[in-house]
Amino acid sequence: MKKNIVRIVLFASLAFTATSCTDDLSVQPNDRLIVDNYYTTEGDFRRGVDYAYDAFKAGGYYAGDNSQVIIPDILSDNLIQNPQGRRSNNDGYNLNFAGNVGEITSVYGAGYAVAARANAVLDKINNLPAGAFRTNIEAEARGLRAITHFDIVRRYCKIPTQSADAGTSMGIAYVDKFDPFLITTRSLNVNQVYDRILGDLLFAEQNITQSANVGKLTKAAVQGMLSRVYLYKGDYDNAILWGQKAIALKPSVGAIGTFKNIWNDTSTDGVLFKVLNSSIENIKTGSAYNQTVGGQIKSEYVVDYDLYTKFVDTDIRKSSYIITSPFNGKNYNNVIKYKQATDKPIEAVDVKYLRTSEVLLNVAEAMYKKGNEAGALGLLNTLRAQRYSGFVPGTESGQALWNEIMLQRRLELAFETDRFFTLKRLALPIQRSNFGPESNGAGNPATVLSLPVASHKWQLPIPQGAIDNNPQIQQNPGY
């Protein structure tokens, strides 16, 4: 009986930590969900998977100061701390990593919480009769489990393309069953973790049937995720294959005329998968970047001036992502990507987890790596035509083409969690500029300007709390 009680309490904590956009689960007194009695109807399973989606809205993923809409950009060279802010995420920004630094350890627990909700569904999947509904539910749950394990492994482990020994280095636990008593270990290496991720994604791609709602996984979204994972793995043939499949299903990268509407949530053009946010939930996805004080934007972090100058005036992304405005007598280049929601609180913006433009850039990069410069250039021109007014198709080749692919990736995915991981997987150092935080680059630059390729800090520390609870979990080297 004690085991059942613990299972009840644990799953209830997972099911109710984030506000849900679905109907409430049927619960026993004291909001304790009895798992063994719950998954019996199609509605039970649909709500169970929806709770897994909702877990992305919890603190550590996309809510609070340590929201992952900002942390990978803080760690890299896209942002600089505003001295007039609250100094939130200060340790992360200063690359002062330790197992008790919340902003760099938060995805570990938050990610496994998503996986736990997905596994609770999968553990009971045989309660459903065979058929299309069951197959789709299993595909969505396995797709979510894969995505969240990928988010964990790319943060806390080496990326396969990062170094010669990365694939055989220590991975993470791949948790594929719901068991609150499970004692996990890091017995898998990185390649084995990626194989498990790909196994779940390939199953999802073959079996997922829902296709209309970008707030849930679709075939195109899963194909796009496959292109991302294969790119990280260094399997460029498969990055191209699955990326092209996703582009074939959802070819638009977001038209230049309506691009801004993606960020106020009145358009899903070019969006493959996003984390939905509502007026009721009001997850303040933009508060980690800035707040409004006395009618002015008070930013925690602003756009590094070196990056800002790379957004030319004819680029629709400049006005869609950034606004220059004063605070206490000084001008700053503020990130507004998460402060433009329409018909709901302005910070209740949906988080765009995956867009077609990223997939296109994945394929372009992989094509370049495989020697297909013409194909890479064609894709790059497709993207640029929808970002620059009056664009004339480029003719770059060789190193100039590679540099432009990298530039467009940085501009397109700025403030969308990509920059740290792009530098990490390409084994490039972090090199911050010498500019200060003001809109013209004035002011004091960052105290810590660089992180060398050889640093152990590219692999973030496992939370000390997780190790305290389970001594079988090994800390990363260097911490």
UniProtKB/TrEMBL annotation:
Residues 1-22 form the signal peptide. GO terms for cellular component: cell outer membrane. TPR repeats lie at residues 220-253. Coiled coil: none annotated. Residues 89-231 form the SusD-like N-terminal domain. It is found in: Cell outer membrane. The keyword Iron does not apply. Keywords: Cell outer membrane, Membrane, Signal, TPR repeat. InterPro entries: SusD-like_N (IPR033985), SusD_RagB_dom (IPR012944), TPR-like_helical_dom_sf (IPR011990), TPR_rpt (IPR019734). Residues 332-479 form the RagB/SusD domain. Belongs to the SusD family. This is RagB/SusD family nutrient uptake outer membrane protein. It comes from Chryseobacterium culicis.
